[in-house]
Every structure is written in C-alpha cells, then in structure tokens.
Amino acid sequence: WFTMAKSLAGLQQTFGIDGYIGIGPGRGGLTCVKLFYQDSYASAYVYLFGAHVTSWVDSTGLSRIFTSESAIFDGKKAIRGGVPVCFPQFGKLGDLMQHGFARNSFWEIERTCVDLRDLIPSVTLLLKSSDTTKQIWEHDFELRLTVTLSKESEGNLGGSLDCQLKVSNVGPGPFKFSGALHTYLNVLDIRKAAVHLEAREHNYRENATGNKLYGSTSPAYFKGEVDRSIFDVGDKIQLEGFTKDQATVEKSGFPDAVVWNPYIEKSAGMADLEDSAWMHFVCVEP
C-alpha cells in the first residue's frame, strides 16, 4: 500500500493540475485519471489499465457512458463497459485474442494539459511495444489515446468528450491492424432506442445472424441481439433514446462502425454484466 500511495503521489505531483486533473486510486485500487471542472458537473474517469474511459458525466449532470456495476477491476480482465480500446485486432478479425491486447495492458501517462484559452483539460496515455506485446504481435508500435473533456460545445449544452486514438509504426516494416473505440453509451431502454447514420443508404453485415450482408435505408432498432458491422457510415451517428434529446457520436479516421447490444440471452452468460443491464446500453464503435 505504501508503494502504491507513493507512486500515486508522484503521478499527482507530475501530472495533476489543480482544479482540472487529478490522479488517484479507482475501483480495485487501479490508478485512475480524473478530468473535471470545479464549477461544473462535467467529469471523466480514465484508467491506466487499458487506457479505459469508465465514466463521462456531462455538464448538465447526465451520465453518458455505461459501465457495468459487475465489471471486474483486477488489472487482468478487460473492464466491461466504458470505452475499451481495441488494438491491434478488432473482434475476431485475425489470429489474436478477441479485440487485441491494448484493453488488457497497463498504459502510462505521457502528458496532461489544460488549454490556456478555453481551459479544457486533457490527458494522453501511451502504450509502447515491449517484449510482452511481441510475444503476441511482433511489430514495433506506439499507441496513444488522448481524452479531452469539454463542459461546453457548439450545439450541445452538456459539452463533449473527445477520444483520439493514434497508431504509430516505429519499426522497420509495415503492419496491418484493425481497431475501434468500443463505446458503451447509456440509454433509457434499448427496446425504444434507435441508431441513425449520416449515410442513410448503407450496407452492413449482421454478425448475430450468420454474418449475412444486407442493404438498408433505416436506422438500427433493437428487437433482439444486434451485432452489426456497418460500412462507410459517414462521420456522424445519432443515438435516439438516451434522453428526450439525441446523443451524437462524431468520428473520423476509420470509415466503418459497429453497433452492438447482446439483448437477453447473450447477456445472461456474461458474469460481469448484471441481468437487466442489457436494457440500458448500446455500443457504438467507431
């Protein structure tokens, strides 16, 4: 305990910024970075394990991110909910473990800052290739996640949370990868929710029903398990069913996105997800 406390004190001294950024113990004793404002409800929690965002409360006091009450914080198993970082493989699209190793790795804090003009706090976490990662995936890389919390943003009184994932190849040869920010968003009732795409006409693969390909001009509705890989979705995705207003996910970089909810039967087999939790989240994964 003394070593952990001393380490946390050192991190706070190096990276903490009074009134905006704090570093301390989170659930399970795992190190956590808190972005916040003293004059606002707005806050976000980012764990060094997995560079995992587990909470975002906007400036109106609404909790936007879903994290399971039964999530395991042991520094081994990926945390259920929040914003898992999938790298260097998404899902089972390759020979590695599902969703890769980034979400199961301990990252380091590279930098924290507060924008001097707008007083907006952000943190950048870094994961580098190592002997441990090369036992799984041979390539040299640097992976950075920058999380920025805004209490106000244009067209949104609640503010915004910006997550930017940057992949750098620092080795001698090329490599291929897939990835995503596997974002769990709160909804009041998934059965009454809908996901609207900027690209109204789109093609998708429904992984929950045998990987069949479909074309659609409709939003995604949830009457059973949905595990939908949607191609060329555009840069704006709107979620209906969070509150009386829509929530908006804006993305750039990857052209595709995944929409997922396990519904009743599949969620029943997840030990780190309480029985009724499937009703209260949807994953929108750019």
From TrEMBL:
Any Gene Ontology biological process: carbohydrate metabolic process
EC number: 5.1.3.15
Pfam families according to UniProt: Aldose_epim (PF01263)
Active site residues per record: H182, E285
Alphabetically ordered keywords of this record: Isomerase
Domain of life: Eukaryota
Gene Ontology terms, MF aspect: carbohydrate binding; glucose-6-phosphate 1-epimerase activity
Name by which UniProt lists this protein: glucose-6-phosphate 1-epimerase
